[in-house]
Design brief:
106 residues; alpha+beta; 4 helices; 4 strands
Amino acid sequence: MRLHVIELTTPLHLCLERVNQRRLAKNPNALPVRPFHTEAKFKAIKSCSARLEAAGVTVERLDCLTAISTIKKLLGLPLTATTLEHTYAKNSMRVQLPETQLHLTI
């Protein structure tokens, strides 16, 4: 099994907007996300991806929808549209295949 990393190219301001949308969907009284924590995670992902790439791991930087189709191709899944691709409604998706695990967070 080989490691293949896909880093989403979603800008930070859009990440914050989407996190807040998901929070409000779960709880209309939810407070907005604290940008500091999301910014720290955003920077950590960039740093980790760069270190992995420097170590020889395949790292692709893709937009959300391209990432989904690329993951499907890598896993040999059909390229039909999914609810996730149309709505971004899920926080994460996990697909388990023999000797393969995918965790996609949007």
